Amino acid sequence: MTGAGPAVAIDNTGTPAIGNVIIGNNNVPLFGFQLTPSGGSVDFTGLKLTTTGTATTSDLNTFRVIYDADNSGTFNAGDVEVSSFAQSLGNPINFTITGQTGFSAPRRYFVVANVSGGATVRHAFTGSIAAQAMLPRRSPRAEWRRAIHRPLSPPCMT
Fold first, then answer.
1. What's the whole-model pTM score?
2. Tens digits of residue pLDDT in 100-146
3. Cβ neighbours of residue 132 under 8 Å, at least 6 residues apart?
4. Cα–Cα distance measured from residue 40 to residue 58, given in angstroms and rounded to the nearest whole number
5. How many beta carbons lie within 10 A of that of residue 4, not counting itself?
6. In angstroms, rounded to a whole number, what is the distance separating the alpha carbons of residues 62 and 85?
7. Is the peptide bond prior to 151 cis by the omega test (within 30 degrees of 0)?
8. Sheet holding 141-143, edge to edge
9. 106 falls within a domain
10. In the chain, how many domains are there?
11. Residue 95 placed within a domain
């Protein structure tokens, strides 16, 4: 998108780190990004997450978008769910975002999901977003693309 008005940069912020996802855990951060507005405030009202990989709906479910309200870089009790309701694994996964309007400072977000106890080991999930896949009401310009690959691993036995 071009023209005057606010712009949004999409950044990976390094969180969550690329790595294995432990089978049987809930609320696992699979994907993270930061939105940095410039030239005015923006409204983050939707997200289109493109997915690839071998993970299926039997592996991953209950996808949600979380605002990292305490800016800790980790998903914890201080964070807030901003997707209007949980989504199933698909390609793409379309989220409606609530409560994220009129901000002009950077904000971090996570996409979290539940990993089934019966998930197939070594199935993988890759998520990515393109700037135009965000659906802001004020039509900001945006740059960057973020992708993260997360293989599924069995729980550690001790």
1. 0.82
2. 999 999 999 999 999 999 988 888 888 888 765 454 444 333 333 33
3. 1, 142
4. 42
5. 8
6. 9
7. no
8. 80-81, 60-67, 107-115, 28-38, 7-11, 141-143
9. yes
10. 1
11. yes
